[in-house]
Amino acid sequence: MIKLYSVNHCYSSRRAKEWMIYHNIPFHEVNVAQDELSTSEILYILSLTENGIDDILLERSDTYKKYRQLFEESSLRAIILFIKKHRTVIRTPLIVDKNKLLVGFTEGKASMFLPRIHKNISLQLNAQNLYEM
């Protein structure tokens, strides 16, 4: 099942949630500000990134700015412990599936989470629109 890691006050998180509801995509929402993250969750998310921890850190956050040096000098274990304590240092929304990760939200990129039937219908509609031009 898809997991949506979000924060209530994040516009992109709300858009991602609305998009998944609109497309009838089942998901489990994890509120990063309220719900604890397990070490295995964080490691799994990191396993799906291209650039490791840098892909999921919210560099604009005051917490990140204050502890920036920690991320450059610490072990992965120490960084994970820090993230577990300061969960809002991760970017939201994070949309996670078995083997896919989307950091942030755009409809075009989120389409990777649509079931194949939705993708086929969308391709057919696009082809039909091109043909009618």
TrEMBL record:
Xref: Gene3D superfamilies: Glutaredoxin
Keywords: Disulfide bond, Redox-active center
InterPro entries documented for this protein: Arsenate_reductase-like (IPR006660), Thioredoxin-like_sf (IPR036249), Tscrpt_reg_Spx/MgsR (IPR006504)
NCBIfam families (alphabetical): arsC_related
Record-stated family: Belongs to the ArsC family.
PANTHER family registered for this protein in UniProt: ARSENATE REDUCTASE, GLOBAL TRANSCRIPTIONAL REGULATOR SPX
The protein's name: Spx/MgsR family RNA polymerase-binding regulatory protein
